[in-house]
Design a protein that fits this description.
The structure is a single chain. The protein has 23 helices and 13 strands. By secondary structure, it is an alpha/beta fold. The strands form two sheets. Strands 3-2-1-4-5-6-7 form a seven-stranded parallel sheet, with helices on both faces.
């Protein structure tokens, strides 16, 4: 025991170099004594080598638990922002000591942990650069700005878009900070790279899915029924979406290659819906707090088919969504109005679902040009068009009537659609005699799409009509608002879009049948352009709450809430 006492004395006197030399001179057997490992960890801590210190402290814990050793380990965890592990270890320490001085130190460290915010967050975000699309930018902004608020993200994503999506944008890869790890797990099924599955692979994916579904007797019953036939198994392998195998593979990678003790919380975002199964699994097996960001509803999506509980597939989706919503520590949506709908549809308790809107990133606008005058009066639509909900037909009708009435010069007009070029657009343009005025750019990079907004005189926002769409924001509205060009929206009266446009003064919302009112707004902006009066940008302070840093701060607060609540419980 003499060598232990000698090392203790050197550490106590702060002679760290001598302590290191002394440890180096010990035999391998002596170094493996838990007291020596503990003191070696203390020396590493004093030298600022905290990861190494954890290694020695954890090795020492293979012996019967010592309260001082536990405290040293908890203190080092806290220094590394591994707060969840620090709190768990402190609780073990408290249970095995009655020493008043150590209890005082425990209380002090617990107070420090209560005041310490942040840590590491594991983000499951399938749509992340180089993949593109509206959902990418929400996750990208969060990953980009969370470090400002003490949270260091590691992102689990994928390497290429699924078949049929085919949107990728290398220009946004550079927006991911270098200190943010992004791990790309291939999605074999959605990208058609995996066209056949052996029995073991099928069983693994189905067991992964059933781990969630068995939490609902009804869902488990439907699963059992479907799994009895080949057709049913094929449906289950892509339920709730084609990315089920990706989420299963992601969990396997996480368990095999990552130290989960270093993460304070898991954040998952959909679509795809399967991403939330990652959060469910990690919370259930490892007890890690979990925040699920739904962005848009699943079962009761305003753009989806009406829910029919007698339909087996819809019923299974409802049961899955319900299980996930109830099991997560906290759920997010993008519109405050949707919170009550979730609570009503799924019996969620108050506070289980909160909203953080989509937004814009001020940094994306830094290098853009603001033209004093466009060469033609340009109406710009950016984004996807959905049959039955998002149609440019009312705008084309209004333009045709204004041209026929000699209020607009047809040669002055450019109607630009930035995004997917669909045949219905050209057919509608032919119907209204505006083929030469319609420009369909196809997919553009994010930078080019933002520039196209500024190179316009009027921005078109298509939400659709009906009571169900009152609570629906299109993600592009926030970048539209920041662009500062007037916005003409086809959206429900008194819905969230209508209220936001009225509040900001950046535009107006109409129903598709309000052709006279649509004509009046188009004509008003056209005359400004004609008279060289439309070059200035709109800016209302009301839109600044949608800036990316501010929204990320809200997420950081949510992460702090679930981690502190989890420990307290």
């Amino acid at each position: 025991m003499e060598h232990i006492e000698t090392l203790e004395k050197l550490v106590r006197e702060g002679k760290l170099s001598e302590a290191l030399d002394f440890i180096e001179a010990l035999s391998q057997k002596e170094r493996q004594q838990w007291q020596i490992q503990n003191l070696t960890g203390v020396v590493c801590s004093y030298c600022g080598q905290f990861n190494e210190a954890v290694t020695f402290f954890e090795a020492a814990l293979k012996q019967p638990e010592d309260p001082v050793l536990l405290y040293n380990l908890a203190d080092t965890y806290a220094t590394l922002n591994m707060n969840r592990k620090a709190k768990e270890t402190l609780e073990r320490c408290r249970k095995c000591t009655e020493a008043q001085e150590l209890l005082h130190d425990i209380n002090s460290l617990e107070q420090r942990l209560a005041e310490q915010k942040g840590g590491r967050v594991l983000m499951a975000a399938y749509y992340f650069p180089p993949l593109a699309g509206s959902g990418v930018f929400r996750s990208l902004r969060f990953a980009k700005y969370l470090p400002l608020y003490g949270w260091q993200p590691t992102v689990i994503s994928t390497d290429r878009p699924p078949n049929g999506w085919n949107f990728a944008d290398q220009s946004i890869v550079s927006e991911t900070p270098e200190n943010v790890d992004v791990i790309q797990i291939p999605d074999g099924i959605s990208t058609k790279r995996e066209t056949s599955l052996n029995g073991e692979r099928v069983e693994k994916i189905l067991n992964f899915l059933r781990g969630v579904l068995r939490c609902s007797p009804e869902a488990d019953r439907i699963f059992s029924q479907l799994s009895k036939s080949r057709e049913g198994i094929m449906k289950l392998l892509t339920f709730p979406c084609g990315a089920l195998s990706w989420s299963c593979d992601a969990v396997q990678y996480i368990e095999k290659s990552m130290d989960l003790s270093r993460f304070e919380v898991v954040y998952t975002t959909s679509g795809p819906a399967s991403a939330h199964l990652i959060g469910f699994y990690l919370k259930q097996k490892y007890g890690i707090p979990w925040v699920a960001d739904y962005r848009d509803p699943w079962t009761f999506n305003a753009y989806g088919i009406p829910y029919d509980s007698s339909d087996t597939g819809q019923r299974l989706l409802y049961e899955l969504e319900s299980v996930l919503l109830h099991y997560a520590d906290l759920n997010l949506t993008i519109v405050t109005d949707l919170v009550q709908e979730y609570e009503r549809n799924f019996g969620l308790p108050a506070g289980k679902m909160v909203s953080i809107t989509n937004g814009y990133d001020e940094a994306n606008f830094a290098g853009l040009n603001v033209p004093a005058q466009t060469d033609r009066f340009t109406i710009n639509y950016s984004g996807l068009l959905y049959s039955g909900h998002r149609s440019i037909e009312p705008i084309l009708r209004a333009i045709q009537q204004l041209c026929d009435e000699k209020m607009l010069d047809r040669s002055d007009i450019r109607f630009r659609v930035v995004g997917n070029a669909v045949p219905e657009n050209m057919a509608a343009a032919q119907k209204h005699g505006l083929v030469d005025n319609l420009v369909q750019t196809g997919y553009l990079s994010h930078w080019a799409a933002l520039q196209s907004n500024l190179d316009s005189n009027l921005l078109l926002l298509l939400i659709g009509e009906g009571e169900k769409l009152k609570s629906f924001y299109s993600a592009k509205i926030f970048e539209y608002l920041r662009s500062g060009r007037p916005i003409l929206a086809i959206a429900p009266k008194d819905g969230v879009v209508d209220r936001l446009l009225q509040e900001s003064g950046h535009g107006r919302a109409f129903s598709a049948s309000q052709i006279p009112e649509i004509k009046a707004m188009i004509l008003d902006e056209y005359l400004k352009w004609k008279n060289h009066q439309g070059g200035g940008l709109l800016h209302s302070p009301a839109i600044e709450r949608f800036e990316g840093k501010h929204l990320t701060e809200q997420l950081a607060d949510v992460l702090c809430t679930v981690t502190s609540t989890k420990v307290a419980s």
